[in-house]
Each structure stands twice: as structure tokens, then as C-alpha cells.
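Table S2 (continued). Query chain:
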Amino acid sequence: MKNDLERDLGLYATVTISMGAMIGSGIFVLPALGLKKAGPAVILAYILAGLVVLPAALSKAEMATAMPESGGTYLYIDRAMGPLAGTIAGIGAWFSLVFKSSFALVGLGAYLLLLIPISDGLIKIVALGLAALIVVLNIVGTEQSGKAQSIIVTAVVFALAAYVLNSGFIIEPTRFQGFTAKGADGIVTAAAFVFVSYAGVTKIASVAEEIENPDRNLPLGILISMGVMMLLYTLVVAVVVGLNDPNVLTTSGPNGGPSLTPMADGADQLLGGFGVVAIALIAILALTSMANAGVLASSRFPLAMSRDSLAPTQLATVSKRFSTPRNSILLTGGLLLALIAFVPVVELAKLASAFQILVFSFVNVALIVFRTSEVDSYQPSFKSPGYPYVQFAGFFGGLALLTQMGMFPILGAAGIIVGGIGWYLIYGRSRTDREGALGVILEKQQDGEVASSD
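Corresponding output:
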């Protein structure tokens, strides 16, 4: 049975898969939470989060053209810093992205309640059904999944554009008074919590092996989707702030907390009751799309780790019939279903955000290691502009946001690191003797020291 994947994703599918991993909770759930922390300046928090993500996006765009293979974050950190760091990154990125997909499917329950009054138990059953459907769609074929993603994302983007344009006529300017009243600390804290909104931008690198003409389509796909989403987030969040009473956004959610349906809260002012229904339907589509993109990307982490002998060999199997990593998708789908069924996913989403920030920071370090090592095998067709200053800014910016997450998410990220180290020591270390580009740098330094001592 062959273990190679087919390259059948064009530029448009690449862009929409990347955007699909971002259009979800960042627009439909998180704005009210950000407003509570930053006030109207939550708009700036989304821009700040995007700017912190941008260096990692540029770094991944470069590394993806040098290594157009499945694995994304895992692959780059592994090849740069060795299999121990790669194991931690692969397991952590896999868990955090599945957490995010689970959060998206469970989060759509709040919008589902706007359409039909159903019990919490039934909402969970609907989420499980959608998760199972997404798993089947990913097994049947990446091309089919990519086509479905393109259709959904295109429809959602047009709907959001219409939402923004129509809202421009009824926005209340007074909603923006006291724009920065909660200060810079509030903006930075909000940026840390909405950071996960952009985390999907680089997930397309995880399916690089299935993209046509990766030298062109990978960097273009990442940068186009990032630019579109930064603009879309800024406009949509500005509309949410301008349409709604801040008290409604910050206190109408569960247990008097922030609203979980901020996009729908002001929709009735646009189109009456039909507006709420329309936004709820769009939200359900978008959150399902986000979960689909998450499964598509996250299932490639076990595949790549298996190829490197850091995970069981069965996970490297590619279906002869569908040319997809069936076992890796089934493992990812199993975790997705378990999280939805048994775990308070909202809390785990915070842990996912913390680890995502950490991983994005070290993606920038990986690029610096590759450039410094000058290994012959690293030949990217696209090079990140502003190197190394952009990468240093991304690294330290990410660490600064991480400090605003609170102790529990930080401890959770530390727990994932410890788990990754444990898996490597128990399973991976005896099966691999590779070293990353960092080892090349250290060897050169040692050789230089020996030469100088002679």
C-alpha cells in the first residue's frame, strides 16, 4: 500500500482551507469576551494578535517551500531542533488543534439554540454527528474535503461582507466612547485570548504534501488568507461593538458572563428576526468549516510523526482507495468525539490557545536555526522578509502574550510539554538517531573551538 498523498489542492482551496481554520470562534464567539477585557479597543486587540501571528506565518511560508511535506509545525521544529523538540511540538499541536475543533463544534450549540429550543444533551448529539460526518469526509478524500471547504468559506465570507456593509448605516458612534479606557494591559490581555482566532492560518502547511505547485501556492495561500482575515476580523468586530449595548455583550451569556452569540445579538437590528436566523445559520456553517479544517490539518501530525518513527507505523498508512491517511484521521476523529462527549471543551480551548502561542513563538526560532545552520538540504523558494528581526519580534511578542493567559493555561501548556518529553523517552528515543539543524550549528561551534585550541 502506497504511503504518498496526492497533490490535488489548488490555490483557491489552499486559501479557503486556511481561512476555514480561522473563520469560526474568533468571529462568532470570542468578540464579547475580548470586549469585556479591553472595552471597544478589542478591535486593536484583534489587530495586535494578527501582528504577533504574522512572523510565524511568514516563517512557516518559507519553511513550507523548503519542506512541502505533511506535518507542518511538527516537521519544521523537528528538522530544526531535533526529534525531542519535534515530538513535543507534534503532540502539542495535534492536541491543541483538536481541542479547537471540539470547541468549534460545541460552540455552535449556542447558535443552534437561536433556531430551535433543544436540550443541552441534544446539542451534544448534534455536535457528535457533525464530528463523525467530518471524519468520514476527510477519509473519503482531501479533494472532496477541500471542495466542501471552498464552498462553505466563500458563502460565509460573502455573508460577513454583507453584514458589515449593512451595519454601517445603523452603527452607534457612542458605542466607541472610552475606546482605550481599560488601558494597554486590557488590550494585550484580550489579544492573548483572541490569539487562537488566527492560529489556523499556518495549518495549511500541515497538508503541504497535497498542494499543487507548493512553491507558489503555499506562501500565497498563507499570506492571502492572513491579509483577508485581519481585515475581516477588524471590520466585523468593529461592527459588533458598534451595534450592541456593551452590557448585553458582557453580561448576557451563561451565568451572567460574556455573550456566546455576539454576532447575532445585533442582527435583529439589521433584518429583524430573519437577521438572527441568518447569522445563526452562517455561524453553524462557519464553525463546522473550522472543525473540518482542524481535522484535515491535525490528522497530518500523527502521519508525519509515524514516518519519522516517533509514532506507531500504522499511522503512516495511506488508504489505497482514497489516498488519505485513514488511520491518522480515525485517531484524530476518535479524540475529537471523546472531547465533545466527555470534556468541558471551553476550558481546554484556553489550554490550546496557550500552547498555540508557545508553538508559534518557536516556529520563528526554527527558521533562525535553519538559516544559521546553512544546511544544504534547506532550499526554500520563498524567503521571509525582514529576517531575523521579524522572527525575534514574533518570538518575544508571543511570550509577552503568553504571560497574560493566566496560570492555569500556562500550567496546561507545561503539562503538554512534559507529556511530549515522556512519550519521546518511552517510545521515540530508541527508534531514531536523527539530529536537527541545531546539531549542525553545535558541531560547527565545537569544530571551531577545537581548531582555535590547536
